[in-house]
Amino acid sequence: MRNSLLAFVSALALLIVGVLIINWQLWHLAQSNTVAMAKNSAQTVESMLNEAAAATVTAQRIAQEGCTSQAQLDLGAEAALKPHLRAIMILDQGQIMCTSLPGNGVLIKALTQLPYARLSLLSGARVKDGLPVLLLQTLTPGGRVIVSISDAHVRSALATVAHDVSLSLRVEDRVLAHSGDVVVQENKPARLSALVSLRYPFSIDYPLPPFFSADRLMQQGWGLILLIVFLSMTIGLILRRYLGKSTTYEDDLRKAIEKGEIVPFYQPIVNGETGVIQGVEVLARWKHPKSGFIPPNVFIPIAEKSGLIIPLTKSLMAQVVSHLNPLSSRLPEGFHIGINISARHITSDSFLGDCSHFHQGFEGKRVKLVLEITEREPLLDSPHLIENLNSLHTKGFVIALDDFGTGYSGLSCLHELRIDYIKIDQSFVSRVSGQKDSTMLLDCVIELARKMSLSIVAEGVETLEQLEYLNRNKIALLQGYYFGKPVSYIEFIKVLLSKPRAMKQDFSPQTKHA
To answer: What's the CATH number for 249-508?
Structure first.
């Protein structure tokens, strides 16, 4: 799994680097194209203003000679022959002297009150037909010449072939975009850049393209992206094949979990007096395709150390649901299904969700789900562990403390956790014999559990003498080879459906090493 992950990360890194390079190239191209469009617009506006400047020469001559009928015809001809001009107006001593419009008409409202500026934008409110104009003004000895350029021609110069690029003309604090009226905008927005004309006092504002654009990548770079994806996958597969030649035991265990080779075995928990099955403990077994069954004391420590115990437990939970859910109608009321949970899993982010999913697999059934927490790991190092277990307890889970008396936690666990059962370790049960004082330690454990109102499950019951001692002490739930060894799902079904009340006959002490 680690080698596969390394190959995947390498391929992903190559893909990301490749996409970033393509994105940078497309961004740089978009930036160049936008600047080129702004330059083209600026050149077009400059050519219009060149027409206005040429018409101004004729108007300056007329301002000196006077506004005769011929002079007015000359002004009209200038405006008509130069395609981008709307009107030419001459002011002398603050009065309208001559215009290119018929009847010496004027285009601009309150023309005599218009302040002088070499170049200016007027909104539609200042123009008689309601359309904004661009004005070029030139001083004369007695007044000034005003030449107007139609907004339609200016907007045409601002038009671009790119739908995501919007240009605008700025003259001082006045801005004319491709649509709309002239607006006042004192400061240029930070997202815009400006191309300043070197010949006239205006600039073309244009947007800076975003560095990353998914639309731009898909529209312009999809072919290169497909090539990068292909190369990344190829390199990833080559790396996986190369790295997969040598694997560790941890890698083998990871693959076994992924392939479903770690399977649940079921050891019955029975009533010591009647032999009726009261529940099962789920135990992990590695069904290796070449080596056969590998004992859990070999792979469980590796799983816990590497963190693989979490996916291993999740896999067992899923298999237990698929095995026992269909049998729920044949199970007695309150049937216990116990599964071992490690401290590392309890403190993980996925623990509550994993248990909730496990619970949903038996929702509405008559079973009790038991989380068996081994005491051979330190349980009180993390506050999340206590909080998570107590939270699940309130949601109906049964909490059992496994291997009680053999580990780190001791009485502190019983105080902090909401424990329902303690499972007496087989090391205590195995001491029971005909000798005097052989049950001293076990008597103390049983007495402690009763004072704390805890139920008891005794593990490792192997002899009739041990069974009789536990029955005399009213220990109802027993587990061990005397009643049954851990068996596969199929073997458990056979026992459950054939003789569920005769466990002592089906699994005798002589079969415990089978």
So the answer is: 3.20.20.450
